[in-house]
Amino acid sequence: MDLEGPVRAVSWTGGCGLTSGQWDFDADGGLICGVWTVSSRDVRGRIKAASACECDSESGEEFFNSLAFSLDKQGRLAGAMDKSDISTFVYSFFRDEDGTLLETVVHESSDTVGYVYNYSNYVRDSLGNWTERRFTVTRGGKLTNSGIESRDIVYYE
Description:
single chain, 157 residues
């Protein structure tokens, strides 16, 4: 999420696959997961692993889903694995020297050609959190999606 400051909630629209949603945080910055069960946190309280029982939006079938995160030496999200009864996705995150996310590469376990998400033209709020950015999505070198992703951030006072 790359969030700084006393964030209460963040909601987004127009994302690369996540068309809209919201995450809420407690006063200590911990993610309030709702249906997600947090199974592991690092020493700073950031979620390292979580799991949930979810429902497939098309079939209505329930499935188990688990997430695991890896952090770089600066404590930023470097990778993630999203594993369910249905599929497994592996994410790699690439940043510039200032920590700004430039690219995300996503592979499904059975897929040799991944999706590449590139981000640019960031607009930031007074705490340095991005509120808008442009994105492009390519697969096998072909553009599959592009647009503007935005998010609203609510802070604790």
